[in-house]
Amino acid sequence: MSCTFKTTRRIEFHETDMAGIVHFSNFYKYMEQAEHEYFRSLGLTIVDTQPDGSVVGWPRVSAKCSFESPVYYGDELEIRLVVERIGVKSLTIAYEFWRDQTKIAKGKMKTVCCHFTRGNPMTSIEIPEWIQSKLQESQDHTE
After folding, report:
1. Which of 133, 79, 87, 80 is nearest to 111 (CA)?
2. pLDDT at residue 71 in the model
3. Torsion (CA) 113, 119, 121, 126 in degrees, nearest 10
4. pLDDT at position 143 over 60
5. How far is CA 12 from CA 31, 73, 82, 126, in A?
6. Domains assigned to the chain
7. Which strands sit side by side in the sheet containing 102-112, from one edge to the other?
């Protein structure tokens, strides 16, 4: 996987189950946190409030994660993110989780760029050019 962005996080006690292993549901939170950090690294945000009070955001269309090795309280994970596809309205982002040389898990999320106006249904929109260009620029640096 050609990595676009890397971040780390230390596993906290409250993220583990009775066996001391990270509960599987937390990996979805870790993917989202890495996505937010990636967007911030590009000068973007996942929730972009417009001058008229409406919001451009990225709701999830699908998310999946598979697990290869347990991770425990105190472990430090490296999360590697790659944007697999920049579509007209959507992003597909793949994730790998590593502890040193051990691959822990891999996941994928697909998000759609949407416009939200309070009191109205959200509508999918084409990814605005100013966002598209920053995403593409980050891709160009990994090839």
Report:
1. 87
2. 96
3. -30
4. no
5. 16, 6, 25, 38
6. 5-140 (3.10.129.10)
7. 5-10, 76-86, 90-99, 102-112, 60-67
- Supply the pTM of this predicted model: 0.91
Classify residue 84 as exposed, middle or buried by CB count within 10 Å of its CB (0-12, 13-18, 19+).
Answer: middle
Classify residue 36 by burial, with Cβ atoms within 10 Å: 0-12, 13-18, 19+.
middle
The type of residue at 9 is R
Tens digit of each residue's pLDDT (9 = 90 or more) over 8-62: 999 999 999 999 999 999 999 999 999 999 999 999 999 999 999 999 999 999 9
Look at the alpha carbons of 32, 27, 78, 109 in this order and tell me if their dihedral is positive or negative: negative
Query: If you search the block for the tokens 């502890």, which residue do you land on?
Result: 99
